[in-house]
Amino acid sequence: MIATPELAPLFDGVEARKAATRNAYGEALLELGASNPDVVVLDADLSGSTKTKAFGKAHPDRFFNMGVAEANMIGVAAGLASQGKVAFASSFAMFATGKAFEQIRQSVCVPELNVKICATHAGLTVGEDGKSHQMLEDVTIMRVIPGMQVIVPADAVEARQAVLAAAEIPGPVYVRLSRASTPIVFSEDYRFEFGKAAMLREGGDLAIVAMGVTVAAAIEAADILSGMGIEARVLNMSTISPLDRDSIASAARDCGAILTAEEHQENGGLGEAVAQAVVGTHPVPMEMCGMSGSFGQSGTGDELLAHYGLDAAGLVARAQQLLNRKQA
Amino acid sequence: MTLSQQDRAAVETAARQIRIDTVRMVHAAACGHPGGPIGMADFMATLFTRHMNLTPETLNQPDRDRFVLGNGHTCAGYYSILSQKGLIPRDELLTFRKMGSRLQGHPHRTPDMGIDFSTGSLGNSLSVALGMALAAKSNGWDSRIYSASSDGESQEGQIWEAATAAAHYGASNLTVLVDFNNVQIDGYMRDVMDVRDLRAKYEAFGWHALDVDGHDIDAIDAALVAAREETERPTALICHTLIGKGVSFMENQPGWHGVAPGDEDARRALVELGIEGAELEAMMA
User: Fold this and answer.
1) Is A67's CB within 8 Å of B109's CB?
2) Cβ–Cβ < 8 Å for B139, A83
3) Interface predicted TM-score (ipTM) of this complex, two decimals
4) CATH 3.40.50.970 fits A19-183, yes or no
5) pLDDT tens readout for residues B181-195
6) What CATH number is given to the structural domain containing B205?
């Protein structure tokens, strides 16, 4: 586990400091383009939105726009990787994983190739585009494939480092990124470690294990709970596969109750992954905050997170239910 | 342009061996796909003996030619030709499809044997081959990327995504050989899903496309030379074949797409392929 890192102040005056993880991806790609000649980038006609366009301008010979054809894009990325390239392939999460699931399994994961699928516009916070674009099942269908390594950065600071790390990690990697600007959680001193959770806050009454945009909500919820005399440990579980079972086991032992939070279906997502580790190590009561088997709808990201109970208030309410079960 | 008698005989020998090995491997496995590889034997033999620069000596050269078997279920013939090239031990062939074998029911990427990619799911292959072709161009290699595909695989939409992109990127180092035998698992293509004129389709997608008699070794060889000489466009060779060609009772029979011959049929097939006497008895033992 990464020892409690210094966090950025979530609220700087009245406005939270925010940035989109997809922007951090674009910046990291530029760094990789300069430092690693084997890096190639593919996109499916969304390079302005996924932020791969800047790489394409800087390295036109190493950028392949594959048009609106995601299955082919993943296959081509696999072919490039089989010849020694480190292939980053991007589209919206809905299409990159949904349309190309079979190609990811057969052409990337079976031959264990260096394809890094960095998918943007994941989750509810894509907002107004609605349910057709709100990918809420991607972590499930990626983490279930043998050999696929899954990273969900909590903010732009972590996203940049995760993308740089993905280029170095052997084999397939899926990185889940957001469209919306979301709160900056980490200070620039934070060091992402692949496969390791970071403890963002100490606490012994319950542990909140979160990924992605819900990490900021988890920190805010822990502050509110603290005001009520409840101390919550907060874990940023940015690597979903392979999962940091030790951190989860410690949290279960030390806190006796675990709440998970994800902008994703509960079925097969972070909650189930954590539950699998908990029942295999130190069973304790759990509650899962995520999508309970429904699609999303149009709205702003913040409205949607609140509506589905994934903001700080929603997490606090579920934490209180969990503590009732723990004490029963 | 025709081959010398000696060159043609070498290809014919390799093609016959593909047919014999396929019958023996699928018979020994008691499952698998005999008709396709037997029908593809002539163009696979021509490609691997005269064009692909894959040998034990070049195996680890990054800039050697590559091959992706799109219709992965026909891999018995692929394993046979790799074995004939010295990349798979001959005595390993009969482990095909058995527990623990490197010769999986559909090919798994195995650099030691020169198997360049994992296939088996139809439709995925041409994209992968295009990726290899783009990598070769980007590295300044003059290697060639070959892919085998089929009429049945051409029903998959991803093939046409890849065809669009290959033409767009001018992947002239890419050649696909399409086994067009008019047969798929559920029956004759005209009854299941007719793909019609694949040469015209590839041409419309911006490819250099040729119809080829898939059993005429001189014609296949000439078409592969033409593919090599094309400098702007990828090439599609639509190889018109007969499923099971060379084993009379398998020819043009959809039933032999995915059924293994039993003892009696394997013996008949081997006899038709010119195996007799003690050699036949040893093979059937």
Assistant:
1) no
2) yes
3) 0.96
4) yes
5) 999 999 999 999 999
6) 3.40.50.970
Go through A75-101 and write b for each residue having 16 or more CB atoms within 10 A of its CB, e for each that does not: bbbbbbbbbebbbbbbbbbbbbbbbbb
Given the DSSP bridges, would you call strands A11-12 and A15-16 parallel, antiparallel or unpaired?
Answer: antiparallel
Confidence of residue A8 (pLDDT cuts 50, 70, 90): confident
Residues A10 and A188 sit within 8 Å (Cβ to Cβ) = no
The whole-angstrom distance between A66's CA and the closest CA on chain B is 7
Chain B residues whose CB is inside 8 A of the A72 CB are 127, 130, 158, 161-162, 164-165
Query: Are A71 and B121 an interchain contact pair (Cβ–Cβ within 8 Å)?
Result: no
Nearest-neighbour CA in chain A from B124: distance (Å): 6
Model confidence at A245, pLDDT cuts 50, 70, 90, reads very high
Every domain of chain A with CATH number 3.40.50.970 lies at 19-183
Residue contact B131–A111, C-beta within 8 A: no
Amino acid in the structure at residue B28: A
Structure tokens at A171: 């084999």
pLDDT digits (tens, 9 = 90+) for B187-232: 999 999 999 999 999 999 999 999 999 999 999 999 999 999 999 9
**Cβ-defined contact of B128 to A78 (cutoff 8 Å):** yes
- All residues of chain B having their beta carbon less than 8 Å from the beta carbon of residue A89 are none
Whether the CB of B59 is below 8 Å from some CB of chain A: the reply is no
pLDDT of A262-304, one tens digit each? 999 999 999 999 999 999 999 999 999 999 989 999 999 999 9
How many structural domains are present in chain B? 1
pTM of the model: 0.96
Class of domain A195-327: alpha beta
Within 10 angstroms of residue A54's Cβ, the number of other Cβ atoms is 18
Touching check for A189 and chain B: CB below 8 Å?
no
Q: What is the pLDDT of residue A11?
A: 57
